[in-house]
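Comment thread on ticket #2218

A.B. wrote:
> Attaching the input chain for the structure job we discussed in standup.
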Amino acid sequence: PESDKGPLNPDQIKRDSHTNNCIITLISSLDIWTQLSMRRKFDIIFNRAPIEKKTEKQNIISQELKEILESREIPKSPLQIVKRTDKPATITSAPEFPACLG
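C.D. wrote:
> Ran it. Output below, let me know if you need it in another format.
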């Protein structure tokens, strides 16, 4: 149960905060991407404009999607920001956040 856990140490709080920031960043990127994708699908299905205008509009939306996905950065880990000291930081054997996700 939750009551069996001891108080959280500062390193755990930093890791949890970083994980939450990564999740928020990824979710907001996914939300924007989903909205633009739905707009593109709507335009394909319901827009009766000449083919040249449709293609141009699709290219603009595709470029917006690409720019959004390329501009998003995962927040840096607080462990990477902390200045190095002579004494190395000790990290408990808690499972680490997957490197591929941030």
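A.B. wrote:
> Thanks. Noting for the ticket: The longest helix spans residues 10-46.
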